[in-house]
Design brief:
Structural class: mainly alpha
Shape: globular
Order of helices and strands: HHHHHHHHHHHHHHH
Number of helices: 15
Helix content: over 70%
Radius of gyration: 19 Å
Number of strands: 0
Length: 308
């Protein structure tokens, strides 16, 4: 157990330091916003670019890995919707926002540093394979479902256009796409340019974790306790449990199996709140779930690491 805690606790201590710094006003919210712009618009895209450049695509993009993880995402989305309708007695639009919050795991800011500390840098290839599809998949599912329940004229095609526009303007997805292009065409890059990208990428995860802590100060727990419990339970227990079972059934090798389960065990990402705010539905549930699930994942992620 102590070995597991040495993996998870340092990550959450950095998040806690960021939270405390902003809460005590030694680091302002404006400074946090600037830090997050640096990490999400520059440092993390550089990290993802380098990861995609170095991936052995034929080996890493295993359909069993993606099936195990993303069937878990769909099950979590459906469970969130059904729980919101049947237990919380919320409308269908609120239910979609709740389902999205339960489905959208924090694959980058939490998943990467915890996986790296647990299994080493060389184990992250499977994480990057999941990340390559994550935002596009979750937003397509969420936007399509919202279009359907609202009876919008756009339907799936409208959802695809909305997601396409969002992805082409998303720095993380741009970093992934550029890295895949360089990988596929075998474009040689000058060593000075690569080293510059590496220098920026090294700052990505610690700065992003500190910034995440500062961002979480905004998401104070407010009401809707049952909704928050629903999202946290699905995200921290159901999603990894489904992925665990699916990975075993599909015969995933140990490395991809551990990556899929551990990534599925991450708390909801900030995009859960952004989707709810964009749709104007279940905003308090989404915001509070990001904060409380991140705190609770200190224990739940440690438990999943013991299982793995």
């Amino acid at each position: 157990m102590l070995d597991v805690l040495t993996v998870t606790v340092p990550v959450f201590l950095i998040i806690g330091a960021g939270y405390l710094a902003v809460w005590r006003e030694t680091f302002t919210q404006c400074q946090v916003d600037g830090l997050m712009v640096f990490t999400q618009h520059f440092a993390i895209p550089c990290l993802l670019f380098l990861a995609m450049v170095d991936l052995d695509l034929a080996v890493v993009f295993d359909w069993r890995l993606l099936a195990a993880y993303y069937t878990g995402s769909l099950v979590s989305f459906a469970a969130g919707i059904l729980g919101a309708i049947l237990w919380l007695r919320r409308g269908r639009e609120d239910a979609v926002a709740v389902g999205f919050a339960a489905m959208f795991a924090n694959t980058v800011l939490l998943g990467l540093p915890i996986s790296e500390r647990a299994f080493g840098t060389d184990s992250l290839a499977a994480n990057y394979a999941i990340i390559a599809f994550h935002a596009a998949f979750c937003y397509f599912v969420g936007v399509t479902a919202m279009e359907v329940v609202r009876g919008g004229g756009g339907g799936p095609l409208g959802a695809m256009r909305a997601v396409g526009w969002s992805m082409t303007h998303n720095p993380l997805m741009i970093g992934v796409a550029l890295g895949l292009i360089v990988n596929l065409i075998g474009l040689p890059l000058p060593d000075p340019a690569l080293e510059a990208v590496r220098l920026v990428a090294r700052a990505a995860l610690p700065a992003a974790l500190f910034g995440l802590g500062g961002v979480l100060v905004q998401y104070r727990p407010e009401g809707d306790a049952r909704g928050i419990l629903l999202v946290c339970g699905i995200a921290l227990i159901l999603h990894p449990a489904w992925t665990y079972g699916a990975g075993r059934v599909l015969g995933l090798e140990q490395g991809p199996f551990r990556a899929a389960v551990l990534t599925a065990a991450m708390a909801p990402g900030v995009n859960s709140y952004l989707f709810a705010a964009m749709q104007g539905r279940a905003v308090r549930i989404a915001a509070s779930s990001v904060l409380l699930a991140t705190a609770a994942s200190v224990l739940t992620v440690s438990a999943w690491l013991l299982v793995l």
